[in-house]
Write a structure and sequence with these properties.
Layout lengths: L1 H14 L13 E6 L2 E7 L8 H7 L9 E4 L13 H7 L4 E4 L11 H8 L3 E4 L3 H7 L1 H9 L3 E8 L4 E4 L10 H13 L2 E5 H7 L14 E5 L10 H4 L6 E6 H5 L9 E5 L6 H9 L5 E4 L3 H9 L5 E6 L7 E3 L16 E7 L2 E7 L4
Helix pairs in contact: 3-4
């Protein structure tokens, strides 16, 4: 059991190398062990390319027949963009397959394991399953409830303001915290902001402070107030950019002639449950919410908060814009994170708080 945990930890380390590159597939790592030694390692490196098990077999330095393979997620049982992995493990004559967690995808769940067992391969399940689930929370949520995983990010002063009285927020957080935010962007499928953020900051929402791929971008703008010359509009042909708008507002907007992709609704308020399901259908499993108080508050009021990334600066301004609006609960009704981690981030404090686990 101790050896199983050791090798599974290594497989999880490898899986994390696919962060931001595999969605809508999950991150998966694999380690092949024979004679007490690692003879092959691999991970799912990019969506549409070879799975972790295939990469580990290709990189093996010795024959894999009779070996044990450690995989962070159940091997797939059907041919998608790449051939199924479970039959490949049978053909390669593995003796044992150790799996951290079953695949929540109903097309796979249990089917890959059944293929292995029917062909005489010993299967062990549940090794470091909690860590494996944590690694792929957006994937598990999408499969379980058909909604994207929402990570709310905010930077506040020590007296809890997200901007000064003129709406300026550059820069509340320090450079190290901003680099962390760019890492969060690189790992998310999309970044979501409200139109007020577009009007105040004219952001690009790209990844610049680290090496990484740019996420898709979403503007919540029911009345189509986004200027045609906004950076996100002008670069929409380079980075896929969506706008959430009322159908009647979009119908008469000059933005119809832009590369923006409309996600339309009827009524006065954005129907977040329905809209988030529509966003998931665009291949977006994880969203980094970087919008201001109105957007953050409306999503939280609708019950859409999975994780919070909060950066607290030692700066104090005394007056300004608060992090939350129109949300009021008694202390006994307060939402509380179930897993909370504090870190020092340069001059700032960084709280990572998980509110829901899938």
């Amino acid at each position: 059991m101790i050896d199983d945990q050791y090798y599974m930890h290594r497989a999880l380390e490898l899986a994390r190398r696919g962060a931001g590159l595999t969605s809508p597939n999950p991150m998966v790592g694999a380690v092949i062990v024979k004679g007490g030694k690692i003879i092959g390692e691999g991970w799912h490196e990019k969506f549409g390319e070879a799975h972790a098990e295939v990469n580990a077999v290709k990189k093996a330095v010795a024959p894999v027949s009779g070996a044990t393979i450690y995989v962070t997620l159940e091997p797939c049982s059907y041919h998608g963009k790449t051939p199924a992995c479970a039959p490949m493990l049978v053909r390669e004559a593995f003796r044992r397959v150790v799996i951290a967690v079953r695949d929540p995808n109903p097309k796979v769940s249990g089917a890959g394991i059944e293929i292995l067992k029917q062909n005489g391969i010993e299967v062990t399940e549940g090794i470091e399953s909690k860590l494996a689930r944590q690694l792929n929370q957006p994937f598990f949520k999408a499969m379980q409830v058909s909604l994207p995983y929402l990570i709310h990010k905010s930077a506040v002063t020590i007296d809890a303001f997200i901007a000064d009285s003129q709406g300026q927020s550059k820069w509340i957080s320090c450079e190290e915290s901003r680099r962390t935010v760019h890492q969060l962007r690189a790992e998310a499928d999309a970044v979501l902001v409200g139109v007020n953020t577009v009007l105040a900051d004219d952001p690009e929402l790209t990844v610049r402070l680290i090496q990484g791929r740019n996420p898709k971008r979403i503007i919540a703008d029911p009345n189509c107030r986004t200027p045609f010359n906004a950076k996100m509009v002008q670069t929409a042909s380079e980075a896929e950019t969506f706008i959430i708008s009322r159908e009647k507002s979009w119908r008469h907007s000059p933005l119809k002639n832009s590369p923006l992709i409309p996600l339309l609704f009827e009524g006065e308020m954005i129907p977040w449950d329905e809209m988030l399901k529509t966003i998931l259908q665009q291949g977006i499993q994880s969203i980094l919410v970087e919008g201001g108080a109105i957007l953050q508050s409306s999503l939280i009021a609708a019950g859409h908060l999975d994780r919070l990334e909060l950066f607290i600066s030692p700066k104090s301004i005394g007056k300004g814009h608060r992090m939350m609006q129109f949300l009021e609960k008694k202390m006994g009704e307060a939402d509380a994170g179930i897993h909370n981690t504090w870190k020092v981030s340069g001059e700032d404090a960084h709280l990572s708080s998980t509110y829901r686990v899938y």
